[in-house]
């Protein structure tokens, strides 16, 4: 693939993948229903392990920039089975995300039409909380976004850059105004994680907050297309820092403007409701337009790294060669991009069994959060093992490459494990419902289980050479000196 992007494009891709505007617009209300008036605290607390894990990603990318990123690194450092599973759950989790973001995008468009006094089309009453209407509309947007991604990273990055400028401008303006215009009394306890109601609320809030930061690592999946591998690391870290500042600003502003019950009850319409509390039309529509732009950009920014992950797996022979077919003119994995889009469309259609957008978001985010915690932790631990010699040769560098990733991995594994246990013990029967614990666990179990089956097929049927590789490209022994410090 062609080296067509630099550090600015990397920042744009990572920021679009994390989709701060979407996370703020639909996620803060969900989190407020769990942790109460502690949105700034939970966002700051979740940032710390993610920052540690980002250090591991950046260091691994410097020695082995690879479209497969964590799939290749974990496979080379630990075992091909764990590497395959890491890549698989990453891809499947992203496809699930694309499926529900398709619905979120359609819901935002319908909300916007409602604010423009368009409440029905051809006699059909429009409802932004209708999963069916929102999904069908979002599907059309996903197809269009994928076609732009096929055209090339440079075009996609330029489009996303302008969308981000608008989104962040609107967010900063409204949230800054909300800090001063809000009538809810400010309290320093908003920033105190020890004041969160319970350990279960802390664990679930942490998982949702980590999900909000999820996507920064997408910049490493285009490592082969970045002119300088260090630009990918810079892009990821800058995007994370911007996300933290936006989440703290928005969390504080939302709590200054909205009482807890209004914040929690509005869920997927949280940003739209926030805008209407602060301004009259047409200005009140700006946050909703920003949410639409964010959802569109995140759809496109999700299909790009996912297609490249499948490209890397196809290149290694663990998946079919169809995933390695590049566009003859643009040099992108065009067939894989379209296949990923088709799978996401099918999954979005299957999600129609969940009747409301709020319930769909809650179910999907919990499922994805658990698998994200797993593959983040595996990648971070791989970095710690790979660079453990720095503990002796360069203690300061070891803080970023070994200690930070290790601590981040332990926090996420503990949080994910505790949340899994609470879901398991929360009920004694299975039901297709967003608040049923066993249903919440079914999706991550299917993701991991299907990954093991696919790995076994690749190992014994395809006889992929990936499964007999014992060292990652560029790997060195623990005691061997390295020039990358």
From TrEMBL:
Pfam families: AA_permease_2
UniProt keyword Manganese, yes or no: no
Keyword annotations: Cell membrane, Membrane, Transmembrane, Transmembrane helix
Main location: membrane
Chain ranges passing through the membrane: 12-35, 41-60, 81-110, 130-150, 162-181, 201-223, 235-254, 283-304, 334-354, 360-385, 397-418, 438-460
Entry keyword annotation includes Transmembrane helix: yes
Subcellular localization: Cell membrane
Membrane topology qualifier: Multi-pass membrane protein
Protein name (record): APC family permease
Organism placement in taxonomy: Bacteria, Bacillati, Actinomycetota, Actinomycetes, Kitasatosporales
């Amino acid at each position: 693939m062609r080296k067509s992007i630099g550090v600015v494009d990397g920042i744009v891709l990572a920021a679009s993948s994390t989709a701060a505007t979407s996370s703020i617009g639909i996620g803060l209300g969900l989190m407020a229903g769990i942790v109460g008036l502690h949105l700034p605290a939970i966002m700051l607390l979740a940032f710390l392990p993610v920052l540690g894990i980002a250090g591991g990603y950046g260091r691994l990318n410097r020695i082995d920039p690879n479209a497969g990123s964590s799939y290749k690194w974990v496979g080379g450092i630990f075992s091909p089975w764990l590497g395959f599973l890491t890549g698989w759950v990453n891809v499947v989790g992203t496809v699930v995300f694309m499926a529900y973001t398709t619905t979120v995008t359609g819901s935002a468009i319908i909300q916007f039409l409602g604010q423009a006094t368009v409440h029905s089309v051809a006699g059909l009453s429009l409802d932004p909380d209708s999963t069916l209407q929102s999904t069908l509309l979002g599907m059309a947007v996903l197809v269009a976004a994928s076609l732009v991604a096929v055209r090339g990273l440079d075009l996609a990055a330029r489009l996303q850059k302008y969308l981000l400028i608008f989104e962040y401008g609107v967010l900063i303006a409204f949230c800054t105004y909300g800090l001063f215009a809000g009538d809810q009394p400010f309290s320093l306890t908003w920033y105190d994680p020890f004041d969160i109601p319970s350990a279960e609320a802390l664990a679930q809030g942490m998982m949702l907050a980590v999900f909000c930061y999820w996507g920064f690592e997408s910049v490493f999946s285009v490592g082969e297309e970045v002119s300088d591998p260090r630009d990918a690391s810079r892009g990821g870290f800058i995007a994370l820092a911007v996300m933290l500042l936006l989440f703290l600003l928005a969390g504080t502003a939302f709590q200054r403007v909205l009482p807890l019950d209004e914040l929690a009850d509005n869920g997927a319409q949280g940003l739209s409701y926030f805008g209407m509390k602060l301004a009259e039309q047409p200005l009140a529509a700006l946050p909703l337009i920003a949410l639409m732009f964010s959802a569109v950009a995140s759809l496109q920014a999700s299909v790009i790294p996912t297609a490249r992950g499948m490209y890397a797996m196809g290149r290694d022979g663990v998946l079919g060669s169809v995933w390695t077919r590049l566009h003859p003119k643009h040099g992108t994995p065009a067939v894989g991009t379209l296949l990923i889009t088709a799978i996401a469309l099918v999954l979005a259609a299957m999600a129609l069994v969940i009747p409301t957008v709020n319930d769909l978001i809650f179910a999907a985010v919990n499922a994805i959060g658990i698998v994200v915690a797993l593959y983040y932790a595996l990648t971070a631990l791989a970095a710690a093992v790979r660079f453990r010699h720095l503990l002796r040769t360069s203690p300061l560098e070891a803080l970023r490459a070994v200690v930070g990733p290790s601590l981040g991995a332990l926090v996420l594994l503990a949080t994910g494990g505790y949340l899994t246990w609470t879901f398991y013990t929360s009920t004694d029967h299975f039901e297709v419902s967003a608040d049923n614990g066993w249903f919440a666990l079914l999706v991550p179990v299917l993701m991991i289980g299907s990954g093991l089956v696919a790995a076994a097929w690749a190992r014994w049927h395809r006889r992929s050479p990936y499964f007999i590789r014992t060292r990652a490209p560029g790997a060195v022994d623990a005691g061997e000196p390295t020039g990358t410090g």
